[in-house]
Amino acid sequence: MSGSKLEGPSAPVVRRDPYEVLAVTRDSSDQEIKTAYRKLALKYHPDKNANNPEASELFKEVAYSYSILSDPEKRRQYDMAGFEALEAEGMDMEIDLSNLGTVNTMFAALFSKLGVPIKTTISANVLEEALNGTVTVRPLPIGTSVSGKVEKQNAHFFGVTISDEQAEAGIVVRVTSAAQSKFKLLYFEHDVSGGYGLALQEDSEKAGKVTSAGMYFLHFQVYRMDSTVNALAMAKDPEAAFFKRLEGLQPCEVSQLNAGTHIFAVYGLSCFYFC
Hints:
The chain has nine helices and 13 strands. By secondary structure, it is an alpha+beta fold. The chain folds into two domains: 104 residues, Helix Hairpins; 104 residues, Jelly Rolls (Sandwich), CATH 2.60.120. α2 runs antiparallel to α3. About 15% of the residues have low confidence. This is Chaperone protein dnaJ 15.
């Protein structure tokens, strides 16, 4: 399929067939496309290619191609009549990594809608080692806890195995730092290549005398109360302070897990308590 020009500052100069860019076939599954994307995005990651401007363009081309093939409707339109079909449907063909779903969490911070590079949130080395399956995963039975320290731009990985009954009841995973360190709680899904791909992440927030991050795998919505109301306000007018906190309720991201072993990690500079 012949290449064509792209519009906008965030797009590659010439469009190549997205299947060719990702080195997949037209009958590749969603998971195979996702795996190919992750590997190429890490290969051309700006953190790993600081002195190679060509890698940055290839990274954007990979992300652009994935934005088509990861969207069922865009993929169908492209398969029918190429880029022209997408343009005829009036679809937005800019690279907007924030719209690519949880698989793109680790890359969404790299470029704004105009393709402006900003600091990444998670080390490319950590993501690559996880995807290659070379990380050490420590078992963490349900109902137990562990404490430790993570060095800067490193991660500790834990495998949590749940039964059918526990999956049905739901679980909550929480990490706290009494030292009030900043960290990230990460959830990795199993990849067809045998490694682990980042699916969810939660940044730590201050909660009283600790920093904390949690993930909720339940069958009902969970809300986070406003923690900015200080103790002095609570002491002066507990009722008013309580209702002020209620006004600041924010829904937490809630997912569900199937029975099996699930991979979590604590990332960043942190003395943590994982339960």
